[in-house]
Amino acid sequence: MSVQGYEPRTGKAFGDPIPSTSDSGVGEIVDAAAQAFPAWSGLASAERGAVLERLADALDAESELLISTADSETALGVPRLTVELKRTTNQLRLFASVLAEGSYREATIDSPNPDIIPPRPNLRRILQPLGVVAVFSASNFPFAFSVAGGDTASALAAGCPVVVKAHSAHPQTSQETARVVASVLPQGVFGIIYGTEAGRVLVRHPLVKAVGFTGSTSGGRALFDLAQGRPEPIPFYGELGSVNPVVVLPSAAANRSAELATGFAQSLTMGVGQFCTNPGLVFAPSSVVDAFAEAVGGVGGGAMLTERMRDSYESTVDSLSAHPSVRLVATGSDSDGGWSVTPRLYQVSLKDFLADKEKLTEECFGPAGIVVTFDDPADLPEVLRTLEGSLTATVHADPDDHDLAASVLEEIRRFAGRLVFNAWPTGVAVSWAMHHGGPWPATTSPLHTSVGATSIRRWLAPVTYQSWPDALLPPELQDANPLGIPRREDGVLITP
């Protein structure tokens, strides 16, 4: 068995097939990662950060080859891939700064106090790396959520060796990226495997201590169940499906319909709709439908990443077109060749949406969206209360809408991880405050983010040292605080 890449614009094979990794091959790579764990996790944070900086520089130096390879395998376009690779190297540099700052260790000290009940000994708590982390690459982000992407960067920063399962949609890109990563990192700290069955073997390996995944709900759920069904269950951090509902309130609709329509069409069709934050569901007054339809009708389609994704998209839009309560209001211009699709926009009333909500809230991976029209915005909170977890939820409102927006906010903040106001959800900043997550089925763990500085928290677990002599404590917990990191001491956060 092997993994073959293809050119989505033509459907033709690209590059030589890469052999699938055997069970024994997976075992050898994981064993090497486990052997590398003590030394990698034992490096001072600043030293690990310096390695991440060198890795970012090495990827930037190979940008021309990486981008051209990825464009052939994904058809995402050189401009988009150039930005994505820079985002990837900037993620690595962000985690170097996270390591230098030091608060990610959550160093906490409680001084002994024999006079309280119960008496308190000398307690010192810190987060420590879990061990080998398995990372499953995403199809739609061949750099930022793949071999050297956010899960890999955050796990390496935490002190965990990483074994990546390459995505079958871009094996040549994965291979070239892995070559660069392996040239910088110490032996065993990074490994890569190929093939669907190899991924299952990886999750079951007893030396793997956590998994990061970005992909479909069905694929993620299968691997999540595998991780939980092991003799030693392990954390599985999956980013899965999301419809990213948008609410357009009446004054915004009346005052800015053309502007909103343009923004929506651009967001819906960005990357041929292959974004996890694609705004697939819009609640709006019927007055905006014509403007939205005109905007979507004026944009072109493009090639999807794989033939399977193309077929799934066509099956979904065919089903929507055949739905008795759903009306097709716009079709974008054709895009010829390969695995190309055309954008589509549908309309359904709020009443009919509620009558078949389960079907109409299924994620359509691609450039298709549904406008759910309402007459009375007072009906929205009750409807929004029934929606499942999502990565984002968006509100478009003018000042006259703010009372309504407040009632909408009360509902969306319960099911979405990022709440967007007067903007569109596509595009995720990589920063300290970003949360890219949400309740099921958006992710398997709403407590954590897969983007931003705090994504490192997934690969760390707490340990408390009780009554240990200062010389035997990690530097982060020693009295002198030799690394000069922020610490909470007797309940007070102290920043040197």
From TrEMBL:
The lineage of its organism: Bacteria, Bacillati, Actinomycetota, Actinomycetes, Pseudonocardiales. This is Aldehyde dehydrogenase (NADP(+)). Residues 1-20 are annotated as: Disordered. InterPro entries: Ald_DH/histidinol_DH, Ald_DH_C, Ald_DH_N, Aldehyde_DH_dom, Aldehyde_DH_Superfamily, ALDH_KGSADH. SUPFAM superfamilies: ALDH-like. Residues 6-437 form the Aldehyde dehydrogenase domain. It comes from the Bacteria. Keywords: Oxidoreductase.
